Predict the structure of Probable butyrate kinase.
Amino acid sequence: MSYNILAINPGSTSTKIALYKEETKVFEKSITHTAKELEGFDEVLDQFEFRKNVIKSVINEENIDVKALSAIVGRGGMLPNMKAGGYVVNKDMLDTFKEGLASPHASNLGALIAHDLAEPLGIPAYIYDAVTSDELQEIAKITGLPEIRKQSICHVLNMRAVSRKIADKYGKKYEDMDILAAHLGGGISLSVHHQGRIIDCIRDDEGPFAPERSGSIPMLYMVDMCYSGEYTKKDMIKKLRGNGGLKAYLGTQDLRDVQAMIDDGNKQAELLFEAQAYQISKAVCTLSAVLSGKYDCIILTGGMAYSKSLMEKISERVGFIAPVEVVPGEFEMEALAMGARRILKGQEEAKEYVHP
Ligand SMILES: Nc1ncnc2c1ncn2[C@@H]1O[C@H](COP(=O)(O)OP(=O)(O)OP(=O)(O)O)[C@@H](O)[C@H]1O
Ligand SMILES: CCCC(=O)O
């Protein structure tokens, strides 16, 4: 039996769509959404019809025979109570989104749209390796306040996909490797993979600043800003995700622009580039303690991993821990489709989501 899988990935500034026939990508398209296009939507879930129509247009343009689809898989969002791997999009999951129990994130639309498109076709809708998949060991969940338990949030989908690729390269099973991975995209997160499980992570709000995110800030400054009366909660969250990091300093979240600024002699851009490498390296070193420095490798992935100079600066600082593997870009569409394929082939069981 051959499987045709449609993968959809709603991101903060784009919607990606891909069709896989078995392991082969038939096409992939990324539709960029301008800030102006999205500014009319108050909440992420308000973008449902807009994003769905974008996907439907691509389906029409690419002449996809939807009747031949075996399943639709969406990127999993900020749902509570998730483990890594695949889930069937069920009623409990849809209710959880509709009741606003998932923090806002564009990927929340993945499940909703996948379900809406799959239901009339009588095929399953899945999500895979959701952002909030949480398999942290107990000790990693402790914070300094008893009322706050750390919840895992990281680029699970890409970091697990790249880790599997590196395991292949090493001729080993992913489940037999100890890997420290850093996803360096518009947002940055890092994770420790031990026996196929992410047992600790550095979330995007507790680590390095990123092209469009503030990363961690000494907390007393944040408390002062929150209570200054100048900012709403929404403003503050936008500083954390969307308007922080390189963008806040230099007006661009594109590392290539920053590199061009440096070439033009911009000293602030140079300092920020150094600081970006410095903070990422410190985060890698922090996580290195989780497995007492014993890692098969460190993986640097995501869009920023295309920057040779950034990779050299980080490798110089962290290479003493383990070999550094640079895997530029992201493999999220492939990871979604291959996850769904494993489920369809019976190699992996899709979990049933339970309302929290
Ligand atoms: N060839 C390149 N050289 C240097 N930097 C690059 C290159 N290509 C992309 N980047 C940088 O990578 C960053 C975006 O990475 P990526 O595309 O992985 O992020 P995203 O998908 O928007 O967000 P996220 O990965 O957080 O979901 C940007 O700063 C971009 O400028
Ligand atoms: C760190 C959460 C994942 C994302 O921002 O895409």
Remarks:
- Residues 11, 185-187, 211, 253-256, 302-304, 306-307, 330 surround adenosine-5'-triphosphate (ligand 1) (CB under 6 Å).
